[in-house]
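Lecture notes, continued. The same structure-token format from the folding unit now serves as the input rather than the output. Read the line below as a description of shape only.
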């Protein structure tokens, strides 16, 4: 049985932003460099920027820490590299650029510019470059790797900001579709923001066929993971973002991906086995049903009463 969290009348007092000092494991910025701020300088071309270090790698791209040569402000530059046959990835990147241009929220990573063909290499592969707000503390995934579990006060701060961000995005008909720890970034003030719109969609109020293969299976809601069984082909995807956040919250609480045992890799095959177990055993399986037990641990007795009452 799945516990219905949204029916619970929560009366939590929400904390102020998280103090980041304890979670910032990267080298602090030299004092001569200022961080990105809303009134940052106009970036006319990629030659305005100097690469400093590599911040990380993702699917098809690398993220660099860069410095604006004249203003000394710091940004993250995400470089997506395309080969000649990369039409689908290019379309995806173009969608991401479109979405980033639309959004303007303190809960969503700011994009200061999108450039084509920036740091292209000698093999003729070309790049799409996103100049992003620099988030000094890195991703929630990086933070969890160092700290394993987070205190409840911190988790509620994370949940609050991501929910505010989702509220904003959903209000603009944008479904993120890949909420997970590595797409939630923290700055030096301890503010979490939603990043990476690579598989996001503007649904424009209508229900779209759900292409469930996009995103990260481990954090996908049941109707996205298995649309046939959960009637998910025409879901708008908004609830799916909230499901993913729920999984992230539980992961922060238990210190590992919550639907499987510690040490297991949450790849598609493993998560699929959990889903099958759950189907066969009703509410006794290890997978999604495990979420309800963890919810009880995190959210307390009120949920248990609700569950017992049906
Ligand atoms: N704006 C940013 N500021 C600071 N660090 C960043 C920023 N954006 C990304 N990073 C770092 O770079 C890493 C790679 O980011 P990227 O968005 O390319 O991939 P990912 O989300 O980790 O994986 P994938 O996109 O493959 O699912 C992140 O995990 C994070 O540590």
């Amino acid at each position: 049985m799945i516990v219905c969290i949204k029916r619970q009348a929560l009366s939590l007092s929400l904390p102020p932003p998280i103090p980041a000092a304890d979670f910032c494991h990267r080298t602090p910025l030299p004092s001569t460099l200022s961080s990105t701020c809303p009134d940052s300088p106009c970036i006319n071309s990629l030659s305005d920027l100097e690469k400093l270090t590599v911040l990380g790698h993702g699917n098809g791209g690398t993220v660099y820490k860069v410095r604006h040569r004249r203003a000394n402000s710091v940004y993250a530059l995400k470089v997506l590299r395309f080969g000649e046959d990369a039409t689908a990835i290019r379309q995806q990147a173009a969608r991401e650029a479109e979405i980033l241009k639309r959004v303007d929220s303190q809960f969503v990573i700011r994009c200061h510019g999108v450039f084509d063909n920036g740091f292209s290499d000698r093999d003729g592969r070309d790049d799409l470059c996103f100049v992003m707000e620099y988030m000094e503390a890195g991703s929630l995934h990086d933070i969890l790797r160092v700290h394993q579990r987070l205190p409840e006060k911190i988790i509620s701060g994370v949940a609050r900001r991501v929910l505010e961000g989702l509220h904003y995005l959903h209000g603009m008909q944008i479904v993120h579709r890949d909420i997970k720890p590595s797409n939630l970034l923290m700055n030096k003030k301890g503010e979490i923001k939603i990043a990476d719109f690579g598989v996001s969609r503007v649904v424009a109020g209508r229900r779209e066929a759900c292409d469930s293969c996009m995103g990260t299976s481990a954090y996908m809601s049941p109707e996205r993971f298995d649309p046939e069984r959960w009637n998910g082909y025409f879901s708008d995807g908004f609830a799916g973002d909230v499901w993913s956040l729920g999984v992230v919250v539980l992961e922060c609480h238990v210190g590992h991906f919550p639907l499987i045992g510690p040490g297991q890799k949450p790849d598609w095959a493993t998560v699929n086995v959990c889903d099958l177990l759950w189907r066969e055993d009703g509410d006794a399986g290890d997978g999604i049903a495990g979420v309800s037990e963890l919810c009880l641990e995190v959210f307390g007795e009120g949920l248990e009463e609700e569950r017992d009452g049906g």
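Point for the exam: The longest strand covers residues 49-58.
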